[in-house]
Every structure is written in structure tokens, then in C-alpha cells.
Amino acid sequence: MKTTRHATYNLNYHIVWLLKYRQSVLVKEVADRVRDILHEIADDKGLEIIDLTVQPDHIHLFVSSPPKHAPSLLANWFKGISSRKYNHRYADNEGEKIRWARGYYAGTAGHVSSETVQDYIQRHGEGDQ
Fold it and tell me: Is the pTM of this model over 0.85?
């Protein structure tokens, strides 16, 4: 359970995206570099990467985000910023640019227990007094 100034939340998103033409280039150093860049993005944006799997032709990202960020924004951040950073840092040296295919998959995961709801109600009531 996480909190912001005005919200208590448990929002976790599973986001998957592919390389353009399903090219299998996310291996060895390239995969490590992309993984590091995705962690940089999460840190910069105040997000928590719960799990990250880099496959040769696609990415599986399980990320926790505050409610102010739409899943589409998260996908755009991770895809757009990662390709720009990778291509700026490494493409000139090794030639191969990272190009993501259009679109992505986004799903939600999480659960709410009755204890979570009760805790929220109690804390909300205490703050109003």
C-alpha cells in the first residue's frame, strides 16, 4: 500500500511492448543497457518497477504508479524515453537503433482486502477531525 498527499493506492500495471518487426536484438549488452535505462526512467518519474523481463524481441514491465498517471502515459514514457536514451547513447557506436512497434498491452493487477478499506476509512476520519 502506498500513499500520496491525497490518495492511498495499490495500482500495478503490466505493460508489454514489442520491437518493430519483432527483431531479436534485446540480448546481452543491449538488454542490460535497456534494462538500466528503464530503471532510470522509473526513478526519474517516481515509479517502482516490481518486475522487469527483457526478451529478445519484447519487454514485460510490471510497474507500480500513483493514480495521477494513466497507463497510456506510462507506456509512452517507457517506450519513448528508452528509445531516445538508448539511441542517443549507443546507436552511433554500434549502429543498431532501438525502434519500438506501435501500440502496447496494458493490464492491471492488484487486490483490495476489507482490512485495506477499513484502514483507509479510519485514517481518513482521523485526518478530518
Answer: no
